[in-house]
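Pasting two entries for a bug report.
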Amino acid sequence: MKTSNSRKPSSLAARSLKVVGLLLIISSFVDVLIIPAPYQPLDLPWRLEFASTIVDRGIIPMIGIALTFAGYWMDTSGAATALPRKKWQDLRFWGLILSSLLGVVFLLVTAIHFNDVRMQSSSRLQDIQQQARQAETELNVQLGSEEFQQQVTQQRTQLQNQLRGLLENPAQVNQLLESQQTPDQLRALLEASQENPEEIDRFLDEQAAQLPEQLSGQIRERELELERQTRLAAWKSAFRIGTSSLLLAIGYILIGWTGLKGMMRPSRAARQAPSAN
């Protein structure tokens, strides 16, 4: 009676572990089937999102398999002998088959994801380059337009008047020269203009001549920054999803193949049966 009573909590715990394990496995497969819908396997963004979905949930079936096996172990550890069963009738056998298949699936996901990330990165880099070339073409058209030249002339005249008006106020000029917050370029211009007011015209002419190159430089800097961000995002995705998928593949394959190898090995009772005769 004591033995029977002591096995009731163990039996309940074992049953609970098996039920929870099976629920985890089933729920994870339901998520993987429902979340990616509608299925678009030929669409690159869909494949990337699908890989992220199954990898993020990839550990759940492994936990479910582990809990199921723990439940079976608790069921059989207290028994004197285990009832002989055919392997295909044992749920653990199918759990190991599932683990092996998932290992192969995650290996494929690893390879496919790395290739998809490379393709997406290349496509985005091409788009960035095309947008930069288009921006440069539009800039060249704008630089040659009469409206743009009028705007440059108007801004040049306004700045020229401001600087000449500033030179007429020596106290304000000295205050700017003594201030540490005054830009070096403006300080040098004020110092030169005090001796030769024509330096203002020369400075403004240089700024107008350098304007096209400055605008082109901004486009190139923006292009380089977008390319850097694209490569960094691709590296992060490949490292996070690819590495996680590879680790899951290794884990599932180790569980599945080592477990199947152990199940295929004859039990100790079977090996000792001939000697007993």
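Entry 2 (this is the one that rendered wrong in the viewer):
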Amino acid sequence: MSENDILIADIGGTNARLALAATDQKGLGRVRSYACIDFPSVDDLIAHYLHSNDVATPRVMCLAAAGPVVGNTIQLTNSPWSIDAGDVSATFDGARVLLLNDFDAVAYSLPLLESSDCMQVGGPAPAQLGNRDYTIAAVGPGTGLGTAALRNVGQTRISVGGEAGLSGFAPVTAEQMEIVTVLRQRIERITSEHLVSGRGLQNLYWALSRMNGSERPELGAEEIGEACIAGSDPIATSAMRVFFEVLGQYAGDVALIFGAIDGIYIAGGIAGRYREMLLNSAFRTTFEAKPPHDKLMKSIPTQLITHSQPGLLGAADYARRNANTG
């Protein structure tokens, strides 16, 4: 079998990553990254990828995208793109098209990660997953706030995803309560994603500047991060502090909701880009602060995924296991 038996795509609200995978061996080939805004639709993106890499239409495609899978479609949450498996199949010579939520794909990658693909973020050292029964989960702030759990029973792995990042945010500290009050000037319903995402970092900066009596110009997430690293803007430093504080609270909630006592994994570009800030933040403290289950929370490992393409890795594994079913 040739390497182009399967086309894999990990499509977020801002960027899309595509690769080729074989059905009979591990690994990815011809990994490419694109800005979604450069293409009118997912069909145009796939066509460009195949043409620019001189690849024949694969017989199987697995498209993982940042939105809920409803039937055979995905409407991306933070993008105008909509993906219909039937339409994509018709466009590309009847290829079999598998759809996944992008964080289901990340969840499927977790058992495949090597120790070198992760970095411990406080707490206990993680145990090997192996073939034992386990429940783990991934959270990831990027354009949005992705979340999915993975349950392994015997030799069967099932991911449970959804739109948990859009659940309502529950402030814990007086500062967070004030942030919510300020944000309600422009957001009616505050979700966790409104604080823990690229847009969330911008929201925090906007709210904190007003709380400090300084209506500064709005900054992009990268500008806030750069200012924080440079130490040139105390509001940026405060925004990043609250960002990781709330990420810890959210990750702890996810662990409790799914019973993910075998580990929480942090994905997404923001946490990876600012890993030193994460390691030095209150993330682990707020993660553990879940009375009456503080003791349980202290026992749950938390790790940052450092693998460059966990979404592609997990989508490829899912596609290999399902290429000849259904």
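Dev reply: Rendering is fixed now. As a check, the viewer should reflect this: Residues 114-306 form a domain with the Hexokinase; domain 1 fold (CATH 3.40.367.20).
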